[in-house]
Amino acid sequence: MNPSPPPAARRPATTLLIAAFGTLLVLIDYTSPLTTLSPTAADLGLGSSAQTWVLTGTLVGLAALLLTMGSAADDYGRKRVFGAGAVLLLVSTALSAAAPGPAVFLAGRVLQGCAAAAILAPTLGLIGHVYPPGPGRVRALGMWGASVGLGIAAGPIYAALLERAGGWRTVYWVLSVLSLLLVALTALGLEESRNDRPRRIDLLGVLTLAAGASCLIAGLAEGRHGWGRTPVLLLLGLGVVLLLLFVLAEARVAEPMLDLALFRSPGFVASSSGALFTGLAIVGLMSYLPMALQKALGESPLTASLVLAIWSGLSVVSALQARRLAGRVPATTQVAGSLLLCGIGEAALFGMRPDGSWVHFAPGLVLAGIGSGVLNAALARLAVSSVPADRAAMGSGANNTARYLGSALGVAVTLAVAGQATSDRGPRYALAAGTDRAVLVAAALCGVGAAVALWARIAESRGTAPAPPTPQPAGPPADGGAVDGSPSAAVSRG
């Protein structure tokens, strides 16, 4: 008789469902304030700076802890870290729902970012553990990528509808109930997986990365109200210094949280830079677009959310279909091509007019949506395949850290560029002109990201980059290896 498979391998579809559901909740939670910020601010008395922190607070928790949570998940249990994140999401959303004032509400938002980090970091490791390399894993990672787009599409619409029905607090109470469901599903449906030889905690790396990312994002958030102010310059300077110290620490420690040798792998470079430019050029602009539609065109929050759903909804569809490209087009080429397509779509958004219609944005959002879906699926594949098999969650954490640091920077750049425009015809025309500038900058940044991914593809095809060292765990790796047959994928097979 054949030996029975390990428990985790018996129900890979359950693992995928839970991982995708957790990702969906995280993205819904993050994007909900796009349509509920005004009533929330009015009820709690949030000033302009506090309103900035409604979104930024979540990014602080995400960027500060994603890589740390990925490393902890690989070494101490992916289910354990994912489940802790689900519990914290339950507590933090209930805290925001019941908040009596701004301080408690914003504390809840920061904790939601910490919870999101613990949920997102292990997801690709959980999926990679139960799906061996091949078409099944490609399809599973495409479905996970679709959950990212679905969360972005559903979040603003979900929030707008619930705010209409029961007020902004209802948005967070319902999220609390859904988080409780996630806790139950995690306890009953996930099997534990971890490395056979856990690494020691890289305490210096944890502290410098968390503090550096927090200071940098805080500086970017406060900079929207004046870049030359002393607190802004101190936060930005301290953030850069601490992140440099993180790099130095990782280069010297025996068991680093992030092995810098991985950057010699073209696949890892494409994964990290692709995630960075996704946040910088795509998430940053799309986070700004609903506000521009409301203030420049006079659209309602619900209409603005539905317009954004053209982009995010199509990203779901294209992510699900991206598996058809596997085996035909290398993942690095997909990253380059999809970033270029997103750039073309964003450039097509140019030409906002206060007397115009949202229909003008539809063609560009269609192109950007198709590109974003392929991009999300390709980045998920590279995040797993471009790192050693026993560091899958670390690869996921590194990928998501780059994405959300890029998102924080992208929102700051978009607002700074858009805010410089003026018009003697009034604020709506100034906002329209600023939006035009922002879409051109975002399109150019997509082009830069595509160029980096193209370089990685050329280096990959020529085999000019040396493979990073593959650790030798005491037992078999937690993950079956690479997703595809690209040279960077071979790195994870050792």
CATH architecture of the largest domain: Up-down Bundle
Supply the number of helical segments. Answer: 17
Percent range for helical residues?
over 70%
Strand fraction equals under 5%
At the first level of CATH, the class of the largest domain is Mainly Alpha
Number of domains: 2
Helix/strand order? HHHHHHHHHHHHHHHHH
Main sheet properties: none
Can you put this structure into words, describing what you see?
The protein has 494 residues and is mainly α. The protein is 76% helix and 0% strand. The N terminus and C terminus are likely disordered. The protein has 17 helices and no strands. The protein has two domains: 412 residues, Growth Hormone, Chain: A (Up-down Bundle); 50 residues. The radius of gyration is 21 Å and the shape is globular. Helix 2 runs antiparallel to helix 6 and helix 3 runs parallel beside helix 7. The longest helix is centred in the C-terminal third of the chain and has 36 residues.
Q: Keywords, please?
A:
Growth Hormone, Chain: A, transmembrane helix, mainly alpha, 17 helices, MFS_trans_sf, MFS, 76% helix, 494 residues, disordered C terminus
